[in-house]
Design a protein that fits this description.
By secondary structure, this protein is mostly helical. The chain is built from seven helices and no strands. The longest helix is centred in the N-terminal third of the chain and has 28 residues, at 3-30.
């Protein structure tokens, strides 16, 4: 078995252990809502597999846009929950969920544990651990492909167009997520060129 195959197996084991540990940790706070991470982790895994798994990059080159995206995410989550406190509609209103979700669970899930996970990803990236790049890929997947649901929801719910929590703060967050992703891609390209295109 080659060194590259060993590295991949070790990375996969670390990621698997992290996913199980994180879902178990979340479950202790938010119960079944913790399983919402599974879709994020699957998307993040695909993103990681085709990007930084093959070409790890110097995390210092992308840490600023990554952290700025987290800041926008925190502001966005504040907008979502402030809107709900004001009585405005939620993004998930009308979605059939197999378990009850209240305001406290959602705040714990997205406004507290979410940013902790994304910042933990930053720390692990700075340590140059592959699991850190995986967590960063999970974060970018969420910002690029799940947050755009905010832009569709007002049209999919009954009645005329209406504001849903997070609608105005979603576009800059989505844009920053894509910007960060392209910063990753740029650094991956540089890393490949530095190693003769491999």
């Amino acid at each position: 078995m080659t060194s590259t195959q060993d590295d991949t197996r070790r990375s996969l084991l670390q990621i698997l252990l992290f996913v199980f540990a994180w879902v178990a940790f979340e479950y202790s706070f938010v119960r079944f809502l913790a399983f919402g991470w599974i879709a994020l982790f699957l998307g993040g895994f695909v993103l990681w597999w085709y990007t930084t798994r093959r070409s790890p990059i110097d995390p210092r080159t992308i840490i600023v846009p990554y952290l700025l995206t987290i800041i926008l995410f925190i502001a966005h989550v504040y907008d979502e929950y402030k809107s709900e406190l004001l009585g405005l509609r939620r993004v998930m209103e009308g979605w059939p969920l197999p378990f009850p979700v209240n305001f406290e669970l959602m705040v714990t899930f997205a406004a507290t544990l979410g940013p902790i996970a994304w910042l933990l990803g930053a720390v692990m990236m700075l340590k140059r651990w592959n699991v850190g790049y995986f967590v960063a890929s999970t974060f970018m997947f969420g910002m690029m492909f799940i947050e755009p649901l905010h832009l569709i929801t007002p049209f999919s719910q009954p009645g005329p167009f209406h504001y849903v929590g997070g609608l105005w703060t979603a576009p800059p967050l989505i844009a920053m997520g894509w910007y960060t992703f392209f910063a990753f891609r740029r650094e991956i390209k540089k890393a490949k060129e530095a190693h003769g295109g491999r």
